[in-house]
Write a structure and sequence with these properties.
mainly alpha, flat
């Protein structure tokens, strides 16, 4: 009886790990060389977007109403 329970627990623990490892293997094969240019363009657009956000003039205190 203990053997059956132990095997069931091991099977329940191993199944998600195997599924996760399969997904990671598929992702690494999906990266293509032409994606590097797209990533670089996306990173540049992200940096431009960050620079367009204005800096606050006063320091923001999220706890001001709780004090």
């Amino acid at each position: 009886m203990r053997t059956i329970v132990a095997l069931a627990v091991i099977a329940l623990l191993v199944t998600p790990v195997m599924a996760h490892a399969k997904g990671r293997r598929d992702q690494s094969a999906a990266i293509k060389p032409d994606d590097a240019a797209k990533r670089k363009a996306d990173a540049a657009a992200y940096e431009r977007a960050l620079k367009s956000i204005p800096e606050p003039k006063v320091k923001i205190d999220p706890w001001s109403g709780a004090r």
